[in-house]
């Protein structure tokens, strides 16, 4: 299965959303980071890739001449933003791991059933062979009996 191409615009979207998040401060929209995280999942981005994008965006927000001072509040808001972004990613990975575990259980059950069917088939083949031998013995016996009575 091929992954969709990673978007070149995602870092720009991330930067814009981070700037808006920091600017809004206490009036922050908590759904915006989750939406951005869901987009990262759809794009096939991994958590480490998003962490790198976050780091680069935070540096751009912190550059001299930027309107947002890098203080404890800004760092806290940026950290909360990052956690909001990676939450859907972690949920996706957690559900994928759970789905993989269920799939492994199903495969194990199928392997057991396949083994049981193979044993059953071997038993049936032996039974068929024994019946064919018994039929041949019966025919031979009938032929011998017919010749003796004739």
Report on the architecture of this protein.
Helices cover 81% and strands 0% of the residues. The chain is mainly alpha-helical and 150 residues long. It has one domain. The model has no long low-confidence stretch (mean pLDDT 83).
Features:
single chain, 150 residues, mainly alpha, 4 helices, 81% helix, 0% strand, rod-shaped
Secondary-structure map with pairings?
Blueprint: H1 10-24, H2 31-43, H3 47-62, H4 72-149
Helix pairs in contact: 1-2, 1-3, 2-4, 3-4
Distance between the termini: 76 Å
Shape: rod-shaped
Largest sheet: none
- Structural class by sheet pairing and helices: mainly alpha
Oligomer: single chain
Short description:
This protein has 150 residues and is mainly α.
């Amino acid at each position: 299965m091929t992954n969709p191409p990673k978007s070149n615009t995602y870092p720009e979207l991330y930067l814009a959303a981070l700037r808006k998040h920091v600017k809004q401060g206490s009036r922050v929209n908590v759904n915006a980071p989750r939406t951005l995280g869901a987009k990262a999942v759809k794009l096939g981005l991994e958590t480490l890739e998003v962490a790198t994008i976050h780091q680069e965006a935070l540096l751009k927000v912190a550059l001299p001449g930027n309107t947002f001072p890098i203080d404890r509040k800004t760092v806290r808001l940026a950290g909360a933003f990052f956690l909001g972004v990676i939450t859907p990613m972690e949920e996706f990975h957690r559900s994928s791991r759970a789905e993989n575990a269920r799939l492994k259980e199903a495969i194990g059950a199928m392997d057991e059933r396949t083994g049981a069917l193979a044993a059953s088939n071997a038993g049936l083949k032996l039974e068929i062979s024994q019946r064919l031998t018994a039929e041949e013995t019966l025919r031979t016996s009938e032929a011998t009996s017919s010749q003796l009575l004739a």
